[in-house]
Every structure is written in structure tokens, then in C-alpha cells.
Amino acid sequence: MINAINQSKDVAQAAEQFVRQFYEETGRSLSELEKRLAEIERAIAEEGTYVHTPDELSFGAKVAWRNNSKCIGRLFWESLEVFDERSLRTEEDIAEALFRHIRYATNDGRIRPSLTAFASRRPDGGEIRIWNHQLIRYAGYRTSEGIVGDPASLAFTEQALRLGWEGKGTKYDVLPLVVQIDGRTPKWFPIPETLVKEVPLVHPSIESFSELGLKWYAVPILSDLALEIGGIRYTAAPFNGWYMGTEIGARNLADSDRYNELPGIADKLGIDRTSNTTLWKDRALVELNASVIHSFKANGVSIVDHHSAAEQFMRFMKREEQQGREVNARWSWLIPPMSPAATPIWHESKLQEREVSPDYRAQECPY
Asked: Where in this chain does the entry annotate a coiled-coil region (predicted)?
């Protein structure tokens, strides 16, 4: 009983802070604010929680993006399209909403920043979880000859296989969506092939590069973070912007514990790998990243290079300063994984991360 009372107090405090921010930033009247605060106070007293209006939800999701310390692309936070799917109650309906999100966000390559919010966690602990790290991601398989596909997906792939999904066993099998409601046995749903836009990688000047057979999917839709707004936790709220090239070319395809493609690229380009002093990793990395950016643009898919992204972040910082807001930032995440010292963010090492709300937050893995 005492814990429930304390939780209600925490929710009430967070709700008041958020709603005051919402009414202040959107220029609404003091009388409207006081009326809304009274409504929320009654709801929390009776139910232990309250329900955001659609406008509050949209504003909160956008500010959560603005606040998120790890994101370099926050200049565009106001453009986020928020889809309110809080009324959905079945795994099938949720999966259909996720398909709609993928279709809308992809937009045939002209990526649109989007968020879909499902029902928030209830006071009794009931919640919706999407098991995927991203709505679209490639599977990873353990084989007698080593790992095939994405090593980062091994655990989730094994869960999907246990649930009855069957992959083809290739390097680029798109995983199914896995949805769980209130701790029930999760259900899996294959993503229609027509929804998944992929980009085959070619090089602007090295014709043989395409022989490597590399590719990547167009849209990174994070789906395992919780969206926290005013004391309310949305445990299923997939969100996307568009890729920064180095996310693919300097991490996903390059990391030794991911696809580890740098040795093969170096060999294809005839670069000596017998010693680190040849800087073969650096040279292969540059050409891989050039390929990613060129290929996405050639296919009409939105992407930003790390230098432009860093400049955009500096513009974001300046705008926030003009609005009297302190930027929440984790420097180690904002400097790109390739040539960080060549970007202006390198010189902003005094940036500080703090706990803020609204925000997107990590949550415990459901499997």
C-alpha cells in the first residue's frame, strides 16, 4: 500500500512537471493548465495513473527526441510524426500497426522520422513489449563453420526459431516481428518483403566492389526503448530517423564482432594486410563508407554523412542555446566512429549527460 502511494506521488510530480512544460512551450493559457492539472490529479487519485491527450503524447515524443543524449540528429526533432495506437489490444493489431509504421517511415526511400505509441504500462505491471531491437534487422545463425549473418542478432534469432520462425540461413535474412502482451507467450509475424527496402552496396569508382555482395536495409527503427513522458512509461514505442552513414559503414558492417567486412574489402582492393602499419583497416573503412553513402543516394534513400550530421548537431546546439535550454549530451556517443577529430563535436568534450524527462530509455530485455 505504501509503495502504491509513493508511486502515485512520483507519477503526480512527474505529470505536473511535464504538463507545465507542455502548456508553456505550446503557448496555452494558465486557466487551461490549471484545469488539466486538476483532471490529472483526480485520475491519479482514482486510478494511480493518467492518460495523455493526443497533443501531449505528440509533444512528449518530440521532446524526448530533443532530450536524448545519444542522438546526433536532433536538429529535426519537431518534424517527428507521431502515430497514436494506444487503443490496440491484440498482437495481430499491433503487428499491423508496425507494418504501417515501416511503410510510412520508408516512403520509398524518402525517410520520414516517425514514432508509433502503443498502450503505456499499467499500474499493475501489464505492458506491451516488442522483442526486436529494431523492427527491421538481419538474423544471425551459429553454424559449424562459424556465424552466418549478424552476430548481434544471435540471441533474438534463437528466440524466433524457438517460436516457430524458419529463416533461410543467409547473411541477410530479415527477422520477424515478435510481440508480447502482459507476459503471455509472444507471437511472431513475418514482415512482408514488399515493406523492406534494401540497398545493395556499390562503389562510385571501384567497379569490382559490388562483387562483395554487401547490402543493408534502409530504415533504422529502434523498437526496444521505453518512451517516458511525465511519469508514464510507453514500453512499446518504435521510433526512427534515418541513417548516418558510419552507423552502417563503420559499425554494422565493419566491427569485428558484427559483419567484419574490412578484411574482405581490403583484399578486394589489393591492400596489404600483413601489418597494421599499412593502415589497411583505415583505407578499407573509407571505401566502405564511401560505398554506403553513394549507394543509398543512388537508390534515393535518405542518409547523412558524419560531417554533415555533426554540423547539423552544432546548429541544434545553437538553437537550443537561443531558447535557453541546456543540451543533454553524451559526448562519447555523439562523436562519429570515423574521423571524429575532423568534426566540430570533437571540441565539445565538456558536454554533459543528465537524467531528463521526457526521454527514450533502455529497458530490461524481455527474453
From this structure: 23-50
74 counts as catalytic: yes
Mean pLDDT of 198-203: 98
CB contact at 8 A, 47 and 218: no
- Return the amino acid letter for 54: P
Considering 66, 74, 121, 137, which one is annotated as catalytic? Answer: 74
Exactly one of 65, 188, 216, 242 is catalytic; which is it?
242
Q: Residue length, the chain? A: 367
Q: Which of 182, 196, 167, 204 is nearest to 121 (CA)?
A: 182
The two beta strands, 81-84 and 114-117, are parallel
> Could you read off the pLDDT of 81-102 as tens digits, one per residue?
999 999 999 999 999 999 999 9
| Domain ranges (residues) in the chain | 1-50, 51-222+229-328
Nearest to 135 by CA among 36, 236, 64: 236
Of the residues 56, 247, 261, 287, only one is catalytic, namely 247
Q: How many CB atoms lie within 10 A of CB 138?
A: 23
Task: Assess contact for 163 and 178: CB atoms under 8 A.
Answer: yes
Task: Indicate if 71 belongs to the active site.
Answer: yes
State yes or no: is 247 an active-site residue: yes
Model pTM above 0.90: yes
